[in-house]
Amino acid sequence: MGVFEFLKRNKEIIIVALILIFTFVLIYSPHFNYKYPMHGDEWIHIGDSKKFSLGEQRFAVHETGFQLFLVLLTWLGFDLILIYRFLPAIFACISSIILFLLIKRKTNFYCGILAMIFFALLPSRPYILGLWFFTPLTFAIPLIYLFVLLFTEGVEQDSIKKVIYSFIIILFILFIHPSSVLFMIPIIAIYMLFNLKFLKKNWLTFLSACIIPLISLIWFSILYWRGDVIKTIVFFLTKLKFNFGKALYIDEFVYFFPNIYGWLAFLLAFVGVFFGLKKKNMKIFIIWVLVTLGLIWMVSYFEFSLLARYQRMLYYTMLGFIALSAFGLYALLKKSFSYFKKKKFSYLFLGITLIIVFLVIFNHYFDLASSAPLYYDVEDDDYYEALLYLKEFNRSVVLTTTKSSMSVYPIAGHDVVSCAYGRCLKIDENVIDNKRFFNETADCSEKEEILKKYKVSFILSNKTIDCGWKKIFENTKYIYDVRYLKS
Length: 487
Hints:
2 domains; five-stranded mixed β-sheet; single chain; 7 strands; two-stranded antiparallel sheet; mainly alpha
């Protein structure tokens, strides 16, 4: 078999493989010059998994499935800190494959390919998360698409077996990222209103599926028990409402959905809706975007969202829009072909159009709001080396800059006075004292007072501190042993 014959026979597999390589490289690209986790949530989950594996906490709160996955990687011998940079790209490719299968079965091969490209170009931002970061959301994305594939095929093909498999998938998602289940409830409920015949025929199976929310209710009641049933119910009801949040007022322009998703992709999705209304298979995606857009719209008027945080709802909306954008672009290209009498001109038009469309969308791919840059907690390899040195000591309190404190426990296993964000933020006084210590105007007696107040054992600094403390490590960072001050 010649090379050209091989390429011709396997062109679909080759195209999919090339897009997966493109996806991996694109999602991994922020790590080209930085080999550590770069979002506060990533450091939090690494720290939680460490506490979980050491038995310092019984449950990893409500995202236990995700924490167990990280613990499993550790038990398998992987260095979680150093392999974490590859996980976003790996799971983006897994999600892309499942999305391709979903869209291909609903429409055709070409729509599936376009959906893969739209998916790869989804924006990632610290405030809305995204494919650049490995969090419970990105871990759940392939399972969300797999659930939609199995559930809708089960309903459309009258296969109760596929529906049951989809219920198993959603149970997994529940223990990985609960809000990724909550946002789908109204979508599936409305979808079933269009399939009442199937629902009536298999009502017993759907009734049995109620065991899933029952299991989750028992699980979360144990985790968040408030002393009695009434208080616990009230607590759960309040948790379904998410306030708009001060962070979202940083730049309202940034949080406007078309600006995040991209105006061209947004408009193509509406073309997809127009043509998709005639196709039964596209109904689930139209319902998806209408529900999530409605929940986003709610924030504009009531300043709170239901079922998921506003930032997460933005991303859920984009995950649904992908299918419609791909179908809209395909429909326009197909319609345009009829205007070309010569085949070669039609292919030229196709190539030029695709290049322009995806270049326009890609143009803002790396844009970041100045108020929310990426989190480079580990400044450089020297800082990482310093933390590895501290790892040799028993757990204590380390004082370093608030910006770099988030990575201290996950790498070195020590507590910190405060940090710039996340659970170690603690109280304002801690942050003020932390910053005051590293302020050049603070004298040695003032610094020593802070060390005693927080029972600090080690100082990790970018600069030398001339206060007579014992220096025990030096590269471009400096570690001082101040344990004697606690005695």
